[in-house]
Amino acid sequence: MTAMNLPGELNPSVRLLMGPGPSNIHWRVYRALATPVIGHLDPEFIVMMDEISNMLRAVFQTENRLTIPMSGTGSSGMETCFVNVVEPGDKVVIGVNGVFGERMADVASRCGAEVVRIDEQWGRVIDPGRICDALGKHSDARLFAVVHAETSTGIMQPLEEVGSFLRERDTLFLVDTVTSLGGCELKVDDWGIDLCYSGTQKCLSVPPGLSPVTLSDKALEVLRNRGTEVQSWYLDLNMIARYWGEERVYHHTAPVSMLYALREALRIVLEEGLEQRFERHRMAGEYLQTGFGELGWALFAEEGRRLPMLTSVVLPRGLEDGATRRRLLDEYGIEVGGGLGETKGKIWRVGLMGETARKENADTLLSALREIWG
Questions:
Q1: Is the dihedral of CA 343, 344, 345, 348 positive or negative?
Q2: Torsion angles phi and psi, residue 13, rounded to 5
Q3: Rounded to a whole number, what is the distance in angstroms from the first to the last CA of the chain?
Q4: How far apart are the C-alpha atoms of 6 and 14, rounded to whole Å?
Q5: What residue ranges of the chain are covered by domains with CATH 3.90.1150.10?
Q6: CATH architecture of 27-270
Q7: What is the spatial distance between Cα 194 and Cα 181, in angstroms, rounded to a whole number?
Q8: How wide is the angle at C-alpha 191 spanned by C-alphas 23 and 60, nearest 5°?
Q9: Distance (Å, rounded) from C-alpha 203 to C-alpha 215?
Q10: Are 228 and 88 within 8 A, CB to CB?
Q11: 153: nearest Cα among 111, 97, 215
Q12: Does residue 2 register a pLDDT over 80?
């Protein structure tokens, strides 16, 4: 038998991760990933599950009982929220002003929903008054969904007015916070959010692989009273809640090492303090955006609504998108993200998330661009 020609030991290059995710990882999180694995029903692991849920409640700023990390990336959290409360024939209203609003509309459609879109130009927020007007006309909608921090455009959608409007209505309020959780103000309870999902790889600075979600009692009531089975067995919160709740009924094998990593990252977030962490992201983002202005590069997102942790910048005439990003990677070890959809080849998406959200990292990128572009 011919011996298999095995590849060599993996030794990836060191990168400064300034794309739209993942972000750089704290050494304590790497250490947690190397912690010895125990069983996902081990009494010590069950104690850790409760610790994770409690810390996630603090970061989401919620008292919701069902606040857990789903196994899978942020898209699994999105599907979790839709498949558990949307049934075939339900009306769903979705704000669409970027790739991830488009993705929510796609998922809702696959659930058999009647999708009503509120479209807005990419790079601009959807006016909350316009949303409330639409929801008044579609008072029978099962839910309204929108992206808080649109990763494809770099804008932050205001949520409070819509949450207040829906608080005493039957329509549920679903929010994508994949890019915002842990990087800017997010008050799930105060803002009337009923279903919220995120990802670990952005402002929480954990490798991709988990999706924190939280559901209000209002959302759980809809789940309990649905007339059909949840279309996804794997994402069925009726069963998963029994694993994360007091019963501890086996559902699937939890990703033990990823949960170790999330636990340590949440400890780091709360040690820093939410307000201090939000301020660090704000200062780093503003510093980078000012630096782009000094280079003569225009910002893409609507002024006054720009994300601190994800800056979208218009490429100057004559700059080659792919070739320049590859040069940044090869010569400087810096990763930045290109545009998606209608912005492909027109903008970059530059992240300062979690551990990467430091002024010195902004300086490193700006210095490299001065050398490359002048």
A1: positive
A2: -65, 150
A3: 58
A4: 23
A5: 16-21+273-373
A6: 3-Layer(aba) Sandwich (3.40)
A7: 15
A8: 35
A9: 21
A10: yes
A11: 97
A12: no
